[in-house]
Amino acid sequence: MKVIFHPRFYEVYTSDPAAASGRMEAIVKALEKDFEFIEPEPASERDLQRVHGRQHIQSVKSDPLVYEIGLLAAGGAILAGELGCGGEPAFGLIRPPGHHASPHSCWGFCYFNNIAIAIKKLLGEDKIKSALILDFDLHYGDGTANTFNGSREVSYFHPEGRNRQSFLNEVQTSLQTDKPFDIIGVSAGFDRHEEDWGGLLKTEDYLAIGKWVKQASLERCQGRRFAVLEGGYNHSVLGRNVIAFLEGFNNEGGVDKKW
Prior knowledge:
By secondary structure, the protein is of the alpha/beta class. It has helices at residues 23-31, 45-49, 54-61, 64-85, 114-124, 142-147, 164-174, 203-220, 235-249; strands at residues 2-4, 36-38, 90-92, 131-135, 154-157, 184-188, 225-229.
């Protein structure tokens, strides 16, 4: 399994928590011994236009640093999606996050909707006909939902369970949908952890979610799956939460970590 990462994701491009110094370092440190890292190319403006209007793109361009890093993040999601579509699961270790970026607006530390851009490109190039997006971030991905509102090709699901078990049950239910899908894309946010903002999930829950996504993809869409980073802000637990998810998500059955 490949991890998509570029050294420019270390750059502190704004003052928000998603851009904080040390956040990406914590994840890279946890993953670098067990996974192969590959660098993405920036997305093209045409790629952005699959989701976003010209005025929105121009507004992000007004901050050149944010725009440059945003292009790399979208490019990282595209590469992860292309690898996943080819049957090799991949994780986009990217920032800024994207699921609060709608076609014509954004908020919540997001600028371009990375996972939506990746899915739209796969659809536009006829590599897939349908997709399921599972978003287990603490926050509802309104940008992703707005992008695919009314779509027959793409289903978006964000579990809303009020306690740990009901949340995990909803994750499993989402993967058992009757709607067809050719790939599973995951907006992987780790801020619902018991030591992060959400205060709900344990590290082993991310392992379970990864396993469920892998199993659903093997049963329903020939193993095609990819994930991209969204939230997660407690640097002291972020790395182990990400690697727990990837242990379940990975074809080889993980890296034998203990939680």
